[in-house]
Amino acid sequence: MKRLFAVLLSCIFLLALSLPVFAQSRAKALVEAQCSKCHGIKKVTTASKTPAEWSVTLDRMIKKGAKIEAADKDAVLQYLNTLNK
Ligand code: HEC
Questions:
Q1: Stretch among 3-12, 40-49, 72-81 having the lowest mean pLDDT
Q2: Would you say the CB of residue 85 lies under 6 angstroms from ligand 1?
Q3: Å from CA of 53 to ligand 1 middle
Q4: Atom 39 (ligand 1): residue with closest C-alpha?
Q5: Number of structural domains, the chain?
Q6: Any idea which of 16-25, 36-45, 65-74 has the lowest mean pLDDT?
Q7: Phi, psi for residue 5 in degrees, rounded to 5
Q8: Residues 44/80, Cβ–Cβ less than 8 Å
Q9: Which of 20, 22, 65, 76 falls between 20 and 30 A from 82, CA-CA?
Q10: What DSSP state is assigned to residue 70?
Q11: 43, 49, 67, 77, best to mutate for ligand 1 pocket (most atoms within 8 Å of CB)
């Protein structure tokens, strides 16, 4: 019984560890698909912005037609902020 509990606990622990990784790979895929539609992806990957600047740029691109759901915005911003650091 104790062992089962330990196994369960490590599963939960591993899942908790991997969730942000899933969110980031989803955000990366979204950026690669959505942000290369009008201009090359280089425009995005070579940009170096502060989190506040990325937030403004992302909103502007969404208004232009980038399909980033509201629920994905945080993860996408987090990913953009890892570029050129
Ligand atoms: C519907 C077309 C379209 C899509 C989709 C799009 N962009 Fe843009 N983007 C533009 C246009 C047009 C410009 C140049 C004019 C401007 O800056 O507003 C631009 C310029 C940029 C620039 C350079 C200007 C600046 O503010 O630094 C960046 C960075 C950028 N886009 C990032 C993104 C990201 C990130 C995404 C995905 C979330 C994206 N774009 C999706 C049309 C688009």
A1: 3-12
A2: no
A3: 12
A4: 35
A5: 1
A6: 16-25
A7: -65, -40
A8: yes
A9: 65
A10: G
A11: 43
pLDDT class of 36 with cuts at 50, 70, 90: very high
Q: Which residue has the tokens 């502060």?
A: 50
In a domain, 5, yes or no: no
Residues 5-29 have pLDDT tens digits of 888 888 778 888 888 888 889 999 9
- 4 belongs to a structural domain: no
Q: What is the pLDDT of residue 78?
A: 95
Distance separating alpha carbons of residues 31 and 73, to the nearest angstrom: 11
* Domain with 49 in it: 23-85
* CATH number for position 78: 1.10.760
The chain-wide mean pLDDT, for the chain, equals 92
Please check whether residue 6 lies inside any domain of the structure: no
